[in-house]
Amino acid sequence: MKSSQRPLPVTSTLLTAIAGAILLLGAAGLQAQDAYFPPPGDWERRSPESMGMNPELLQQAVDFAIASESTAPRDLEVAHALSWNTEPFDEAIGPLKVRGPQSGIVVKDGYIVAEWGETKRVDPTFSVAKSFLSSTVGLAWDRKLIRDVNDAVHEYMPPLILPVGDGEPGGEADGRGVPTPVSLFDSEHNQKITWDHLLRQTSDWEGTLWGKPDWGDRPGRDVAANRNRPRNEPGTAYKYNDVRVNLLALAALQVWRRPLPQVLREHIMDPIGASNTWRWYGYENSWVNVDGEMMQSVSGGTHWGGGMNLSAEDQARFGYFTLHKGNWDGEQLLSEEWLDMAETPGTVNEMYGFMNFFLNTGQRSYSSTPESSFSHRGAGTNLVYVDRDNDLVVVARWIQGGAIDEFLGMVIASSVVAEERR
Fold first, then answer.
1. Alpha carbon distance 101, 117 (integer Å)
2. Strand order in 123-124's β-sheet?
């Protein structure tokens, strides 16, 4: 049967539009091909001059960073004791170590143009681990293991057998001395919590995990008020809370049914050429039985020890991976759609996307950097700065938080001034 529709006339306007589209697609493909991606075990260094940067100004930025090293003790066990001694449950339950000196890397157009300190040294990266965690959730979403970020998390969570006293409600041993399974989302409040709420730290989940109650993380002075306050409706209030971050890690483990470090290594870290030296730890008591195997649920930070331990070079690779929206040398490892969501400001906190994408909405994070820039940040300060406008990735480890904006402004100025002189 022949179609009664006539073919559309091919006009000069249509031909022009088609040709323009082809040219745009070709330019995009050429741009992707031209981008440099460092192979495993190697990363090309280039002089600042060859990348259009002013070497004197860039060196001034490096010198400023070194002079701005954190004043906290390098022994992280001591630093932990001093930082969290006002918390009622401050005991470290994961590994801590002595950190290295202030260190960093500047990557311009994919090439290392400056590095200082001990860039291959493996140290905890504190809450930058949250960006690795949210990426494993994104990998699950890409594979439809999580159908929708607005799904209630309890739909994906089985009752779990946790060490006695390390989770509530439930968890107490029965008459035989055997722990009873724990349902972490049983309460009316917790059943409303979605993946999006946990990713944006707006869940206000109530409970205890790994022996740490949610109200014991960064509590106010009135402990009784913290324990008994009315709960915020999920999605209506932002609270940076590592107990709930660790809950997200446990939920992601149940979805993957594999240790998250294995997921991250297979789908991101190995493909982007990360070293073999990074390790992602949980706590001494964060072990659960999954399909008959004991697996450690990782920490989303180093608030109580553990967390992601890696080098500045591996941090820079991850930053470059997010700069390219999850694409590495032509392979889309994590969907661009997921990273678009991760970089979308939350309705409660417009400076925060998915953890730990700190946004620069209104240039309120860093006034010296473009509004489109973002950073993965953790205590220390551990910084991975991502700037697509200037094709920059900057890692600064163990730098004072108050020095970051000035430091980044100096790095950007070394590029801008050089461009103006050419």
1. 6
2. 123-124, 307-310, 279-290, 293-298
Residue range 163-216, pLDDT digits in tens:
876 776 555 555 666 778 889 999 999 999 999 999 999 999 999 999 999 999
Q: Residue 356: is the preceding peptide bond cis (ω within 30°)?
A: yes
Average pLDDT over residues 357-365: 97
pTM above 0.85, yes or no: yes
Minimal CA–CA distance to 45: which of 147, 113, 143? 113
Confidence band, pLDDT 50/70/90 cuts, at residue 140:
very high
Q: How far apart are CA 407 and CA 313, in angstroms?
A: 19
Q: How far apart are CA 299 and CA 243, in angstroms?
A: 9
Task: Quote the mean pLDDT of the chain.
Answer: 90
Evaluate whether 366 touches 300 at the Cβ level (below 8 Å).
Answer: no
Please check whether residue 320 is in contact with residue 393, taking contact to mean a CB–CB distance below 8 angstroms: yes
How far is 265 from 173, CA to CA, in rounded Å? 36
Other residues' Cβ atoms within 10 Å of the Cβ of residue 175: 5
* 326 alpha-carbon distance from chain centroid: 13
User: Nearest 5 degrees, angle CA 389-CA 395-CA 398?
Assistant: 140
| Rounded Cα gap, residues 330 and 335, in angstroms | 12
